[in-house]
Amino acid sequence: MKPTRFIDLLPHIVLIVGVLIFAYPIYVTLIGSTWDSGTIGRGGLPLWPGGQGATNYAQAWVGEAGDRAMYTPVRTMMLNSLVMALSIAVGKIAISILSAYAVAFFRFPLRMAFFWLIFITLMLPVEVRIIPTYKVVADLGLINTYAGLAIPLIASATATLLFRQFFLTIPDELLEAAKIDGAGPVRFFIDVVLPLSRTNIAALFVILFIYGWNQYLWPLLVTSSGDMETIVTGITKMIGTGESANDWHIIMATTVLAMLPPVAVVVFMQRWFVKGLVDSEK
Amino acid sequence: MATVEIRNVRKSYGPVEAIKGIDIAIQDGEFLVLLGPSGCGKSTLLRMVAGLEGITGGEIAIGGRVVNHLDPKDRDIAMVFQNYALYPHMTVFDNMAYGLKIRGIPKAEIRARVDKAANILELGRFLDRRPSQLSGGQRQRVAMGRAIVREPAAFLFDEPLSNLDAKLRTQMRVEIKRLQDRLGITSLYVTHDQVEAMTLADRILVMNHGVAEQIGTPLEVYQRPASLFVAGFIGSPPMNVLDGRIDDRGEAVLLPGGQRLALPQARPTDAGRPVKLGIRPEHMAVAAQDFSGGFSIEVELVEALGADTVVYGRLPDGESLLVRMAGIPTVRERDRLTVAPQDGALHLFDAVTGRRME
């Protein structure tokens, strides 16, 4: 065997350094969640696990009063976030796959006008239209509801475009064969288009779930009561303005818990996700 | 099983007329091939029968019932596509069963029909596979199986063999022929391949620019091409076409190079008329060097195909002339020889319209 040369090792070194840079803050959070607030507060957080982990997580989960303040329990916030992220992911996929189906397979007046209308919304991020959106949601009485959290984020030009591009690769003959077989538009959608799109749907689901889970600005505006708090806004609210010390041990435990669902979605759907991104199964 | 009648059918895309009035009645159990170059409208005509294209004018009737305004599913037809159009996510069984399932046919009968079709097509071992796990020929058979299980009034084939390699194409051609003989279902078959047309068809409809140039049996189309277009399209290598003029007594054709070819029958009414003279390369033979009723050519190229030989010759006036001889080459390049048409090998076409002169 040839002796390993430095040049061969270099990519590995770069990668390992990269991993360390990304992983270190997460490691600190993980360690921090196992110490008491005093240790963290003094600024001398050790790099090994402490003995407070179980207590901290239990406290965060049920929302018992911390050393300094009362918090919304993590289980409530997780549930809120889960409902919001799932509604956004499922809703976006459902709406966009249907609108893409319409735009790609049907000929109707103003078809391209509608397509461009959808396309234009791509250029208007949530932040730009947040005031009118808030006004609409408030007038509909949706403040502090799941509907208010999820519905304004469901319309999705990106997903519509993605599905449309995919649908355009489905050969016309397949549609014609289905017509001759006697399948109407709904049948064709359910029996042919949906099964063919499943890897795309899975990939989109992963992306959109994380997108929904990580929403910050919109939940911050549209929720005001503690029991509608989502976990991402909840964490930031736990951190004070500097006038008082923070319950870092609980914040860190909450942060670790907040990471789990997106990680789980990625882990469980990884196979589909990668397939959906790279492969066009024909 | 049914007749298919196409009555003065037209198709326009805006101002462009793609099909300019086609008339044909296809008998029950007949195999009709629509033959023509790409863009001649043959696929459009087939898709109009299928109901995938609207009909601008005229009528199409399947089994005596006018289907102009029926959806494809209500026309009682089955279609085989060029790229097979199998559902990629379904097994071979499900691909064949799908149309039956939608029609609400009981499960047991679906099973029986699919098994029967799979037997005929030797697909039994592949019923649980996906199309992506099959070879081109097997996919083609699945596509035909999907048509067979429907037990339709008519089969429509849209260039079904053009995605296969040459060897498989020959094999599948034989299978299609055998299958159609066995099932006796009225079939319309679109192709641009004259060999497929000649071997499969009961009758051929030769199309060009949206009109029917000729409708006839394969041998009629070969032996008595109705126009210069058909003469050039059917037969390989293509028919030789030379400019000529009928002599003043109507007994022979005079060619610019000075040759005089006697007509089998005198045509006094056509005396002096300019014509196009067609002679198939395989209907010429080498003659004695001084034979007056033949062509003197210089051999430019010799293609030895094994079973026969194609000679590319040039006439003294610069026109080229193809001669097909049986067997291995007996002439070489730059040889001079005289070739003469066999009896009854002359085809006369009107110099202006290109139609056959009887």
From TrEMBL, chain A:
Membrane spanning stretches: 9-27, 82-106, 113-131, 143-167, 188-213, 248-269
Membrane topology category: Multi-pass membrane protein
Localization per record: Cell inner membrane; Cell membrane
Annotated InterPro entries: MetI-like, MetI-like_sf
Gene3D superfamilies documented for this protein: MetI-like
Sections of the chain in a coiled coil: none
Residue ranges of every copy of the ABC transmembrane type-1 domain listed in the record: 78-269
UniProt cross-references to Pfam families, sorted A to Z: BPD_transp_1
Statement: the UniProt record of this protein carries the keyword Cell inner membrane: yes
Record's keyword terms, sorted: Cell inner membrane, Cell membrane, Membrane, Transmembrane, Transmembrane helix, Transport
Chief location of this protein within or outside the cell: membrane
Keyword Iron-sulfur: no
Function in brief: Part of the ABC transporter complex UgpBAEC involved in sn-glycerol-3-phosphate (G3P) import. Probably responsible for the translocation of the substrate across the membrane.
Subunit structure: The complex is composed of two ATP-binding proteins (UgpC), two transmembrane proteins (UgpA and UgpE) and a solute-binding protein (UgpB).
Membership in a protein family: Belongs to the binding-protein-dependent transport system permease family.
Stated name of the protein: sn-glycerol-3-phosphate transport system permease protein UgpE
Organism: Azospirillum melinis
Automatic annotation (TrEMBL), chain B:
Organism superkingdom: Bacteria
Bilayer-crossing regions: none
Species of origin: Azospirillum melinis
Stated family: Belongs to the ABC transporter superfamily.
Alphabetically ordered keywords of this record: ATP-binding, Cell inner membrane, Cell membrane, Membrane, Nucleotide-binding, Sugar transport, Translocase, Transport
Keyword Nucleus found: no
Domain ABC transporter: 4-234
The keyword Transport belongs to this UniProt entry's keyword annotation: yes
SMART domains in the cross-refs: AAA
Cited Pfam families: ABC_tran, OB_MalK
Designated name of the protein: Sn-glycerol-3-phosphate ABC transporter ATP-binding protein UgpC
GO terms, molecular function: ATP binding
PROSITE patterns reported for this sequence: ABC_TRANSPORTER_1, ABC_TRANSPORTER_2
